Amino acid sequence: MQRKIVIFLLTYSMIFTLLSNTHEHKEGDSCSKTTKNKKLKADEIHDDDKDHDDDKDHDDDKDHDDDKEKHSDDDKDHDDDKEKHNDDRHDDDKDHDDDKEKHNDDGHDDDKEKEDHKDDDGHYKDHKDEKDDKHGDSESEEEDNTIELSPAAVKVAEIQTEVIKLKKVPKVISVPGEILPNPNLFTKISVRISCQVEKLWVNIGERVKKGQPLVTLSSIEMSELQGQLLDSYNNWRRLKSLVKTKAISEIQYKRSEIEFFKTISILISNGMTKQQVTDLIKEDDPSKITGNFIILSPQSGKIYTDNLELGKRFIKDKEEGNELLSIIDDSSLWVKASLPGSDINQVKKGAKAIISNERNNIEGEVIQVIPKLDNVTRTQKVIIFISNKDDKLHPGEFVDCNIEIKRMRSVLVVPEASAFRLPDGDWAVYEEVKPNHFKQREISIIDSFGKNIIIEGVEPGSKIVTKGAFAVHSELQKSGFSVHNH
Asked: Which residues is 191 bridged to in the sheet?
């Protein structure tokens, strides 16, 4: 009976120990103490039972030893579980300490950041202030390319501005050209007979009026013709009275009349005017037969060429004659432009053109397109008519011809002098953003014609410096600001 009690107690003790191990993982060190007490109690009971059961057989002892060994193994497992549990708790505590330390560090950094955001009075600054500071820096950078000039400086530099607007400009081709006299307003003066210069009335480049004396010439041949004029005139008068009385035949009279008017024509073709011939006939004075005659200007204009010198002799040339001088009315001129092979037949009669030199731009119109190509250059010639009342262009001058071939879109056009090149190679203009405040604006040059350029980069309605841009640019450089702000 006692043996059964002992076995029951041992079994109970083991069950209780297993339950305690499970509970011990939750309860910690308190459970460990309870388990130890129960183990001691079980050992005491086992010792008492052992003293009263000396007659227990060997099989029961062996079972008991097996149970005890099993119990010891269980205790060992319990101790291992406890040690593992303690290690886990230690690791958890270490991780907790690390998290706490990190949290403290983060808090320290936050405090430092807050301190950095404090102003001089210890108050925290608003993020909006920081944003405003950045915005202010951006505005400051924009102001780097703006210069303010005094009204006096603007006046001294002769700075002029213009509000630019969209304009319709033609698509043009640029070709070289040469200024020619307008042949309808140009006269060459020459003589066919041998003569000598007796008096000069005008000089080259001088403006003259129609009928104004140009040069007095003396000619032996002319004197002979003048004598023939008086002879034929008097003979014609005499025969005219005789034919009325039937003293001579009508044929004789007609011959004398033909000879008289023929002499008049020869005199006029050799340099005398109708009025000079008429005056000589009216005077009918042989003393007036001097061989001298005055060349009068056939038109108003300017002495263009002069081949005259006092006392200079000219030899008779019936074919071409001897050119004395020429007169040009340069109020209008022609321009002969040469189109290369790629532009042949692109220009039409009536097309608009801009004729440019280093000083001026003048509008013109194509009046002739010559179909035959030049034998040497293989270029096509076009003739452009221009008005030159302000005497801006002169015959013989080489010019640039910008001839319209078709219409373009509306674009912004400014004078070429408005733009200047920046150090990095870009182009810019100056805009007057408010009175006497000029801001540099970077632009792109799309095309050019004459002294104008087509630009992009500014808005229509902008007030652009069209004269004096270099002076504004120089002032900006002297002020110490950057001349180009990327």
From this structure: 322
